[in-house]
User: What shape does this take?
Amino acid sequence: MDLISIDDFLDDVMPELPGCTEFLAINRLRFAAIEFCRRSLISQETVEELDLDQDEPELVISAPNNSVRVYRIMWIKSPHRTLTPASKQPLTDRSRDWTTFGTADWPMGYVRLSSDTVHLIPTPSEDKSGVITAHVACIPTREATKLDVILIDEYREAIAAGALSRLLNMGKEPWYDPSSAQQYAIDFASEISNARASVNKDQLMADTRVQFNKF
Assistant: This one.
């Protein structure tokens, strides 16, 4: 994932914010980027060479850099298959505990435990280094000073609109402009919808998941 500085967006917002500090503008640009990535899933990265550990069912997928965190796991693959995501509830409803599906050379599926952690099913029966690949959607951290380059290459106006929709709605500031803030909010939401539609289309075209037998 290539990164760019949040500062690169300042020229897109500062002309409309007389008296606004760069610190405040950067803060709102960061919030806009987080919301945009969270709702659109546009910032994605493939994480390769993950290890399987013997008798360890949990697999943690680390963020590709310290400017982002994993928000959603899109898919996980072994050399033999695309692992199928399963829901906790249907598995829990069955006669056996979903956490005790035994061990095998390779996992066939997984249950999401959190945004970056899954429970592999079955549990790996031996150590294997660098054999798992995961594709994840990321969002900037709240401390990020850099953003995914896709946001400036393809969604620069959208991020600026998201920041301005917040900044121009600050009632006690000299740049207060609720009418413009409302329009920027509409533009921001529209760009999020367009980006999410693009992600959904790409995901549908690239969907190569292989169904496996029920546990």
